[in-house]
Amino acid sequence: MTAKKRILSGMRPTGPLHLGNYHGALDNWIAMQEEYDCFFFIADWHALTSDYENTGNISRFVQEMMIDWLSAGLSPEKCTLFVQSNVMEHAELFLLLSMITPVPWLERNPTYKDQIIQLDNKDLSTFGFLGYPVLQAADIIMYKANGVPVGIDQVPHIEITREIARRFNYLYGKVFPEPDAILTQSSKILGLDRRKMSKSYNNAIYLSDSPEDIRAKVSTMITDPNRARRKDPGNPEICNVFEFHKLYSPSPVVEEINSQCRSATIGCVECKKIMAENLINALAPIRDKRKYFEERPEMVQEIIASGNQKAQAVAQQTMKEVRRAVRI
Description:
The chain has 14 helices and five strands. It is mainly alpha-helical and 328 residues long. The chain starts with 5 loop residues before the first strand and ends with a helix.
């Protein structure tokens, strides 16, 4: 039997997961756990790169994120789920890799430049923020991952990891494979205000939202900006609510909404109500499983502890090879 290829990815615990997180990454992970040897980790150290002044909620967010993962369909029987800071070998490999990584590689990172501009309300002039791609590289190559599932905008991150692995191998001998970027498809889904769905924009629908929360949020969604009155024909192609319909409503309903909107036989208020109920129904299994795990916090902690143990066993073996190669 051919061994499964290994993949690794992680998420920062900066708050509850929303539909953008689900469609952008989590849904792909759930499908991949059937095909790959999967390592998925909660990147709590990475959360410090931009939120180092506000660490009080990180532990709670770690627990909440694991519950979101389990509720959505990640299985500890099929993949290794762990917390980054509980596997201290990540810090050791990060230190060693930082010794060989040229600063210009980090300064040219497009995400570094973008975040400096977007997060101008935070002081990001820290070594940790500049060097987070090195920690990210340590996270990935620690487990000798064959690939990392990413969207097209994240490919430069994986290329930096490949360069760092290549440089280590050149200096000390072949230890690490160069991981490939596994391009994943993600459904187009924006926030309530048509911007990118984000916690910081306060425009997100969360996996943990109640039906009442969802109804209230959907009622505020921006629709076709050119449809000023109920009697005006709409254009579903530029309506964010219609994008949600395509994801969460049955095909006959989507076709009917498409036709009725264009002919102005349905108004935006009614259209939103129909979508909200279909969204609520679609998220019901996640909501039910979430309640199950919320009532069993000890079980969640046991899953985390077991995943940490599995991850650390691999990390310890890797670090033996690394120390032997570096001769320290």
